[in-house]
Design brief:
The chain has 114 residues and is α+β, with helices and mostly antiparallel strands. 50% of the residues lie in helices and 25% in strands. The chain contains three helices and four strands. The protein has helices at 2-31, 49-64, 92-102; strands spanning 34-40, 68-76, 79-86, 109-113.
Length: 114
């Protein structure tokens, strides 16, 4: 019986720590400037595997160059979407535009601040 109480106590303590960490991360992202990237795809429906592989290249560029963090992504209606919380407010938009161009989406994207 005692070991059950100890396990439950450990779960409560662990859950509190995880909730606190999640709140800190949300607060950090909320303080960053965010941009919505829309990329036009050939289909009028969901993105194909090939489209998603192309988007993954952009996501990798954004992460590897420390431009920001992807906070949301999706597709539908002929578009692939990303929301990025940029690391540097001043240069974030320009850095995103450059990464989008290097990923091959220069002629088919929209970038909007949120």
């Amino acid at each position: 019986m005692l070991w059950i109480m100890l396990v439950l106590l450990a779960l409560v303590i662990g859950g509190s720590y995880v909730r606190g960490a999640a709140t800190r991360v949300r607060d950090e992202f909320a303080s960053r400037k965010r941009f919505h990237i829309s990329i036009k795809i050939d289909s009028e429906h969901m993105a194909s595997r090939a489209d998603l592989a192309e988007r993954a290249k952009l996501e990798t560029l954004i992460a590897d160059e420390h431009i920001g963090e992807i906070t949301e992504s999706g597709s539908g209606g002929g578009w692939m979407d990303l929301v990025v919380a940029v690391a540097e407010s001043e240069r974030g938009e320009q850095q995103l535009r450059e990464a989008i161009a290097r990923a091959g989406f220069a002629d088919r994207f929209e970038l909007k601040p949120l």
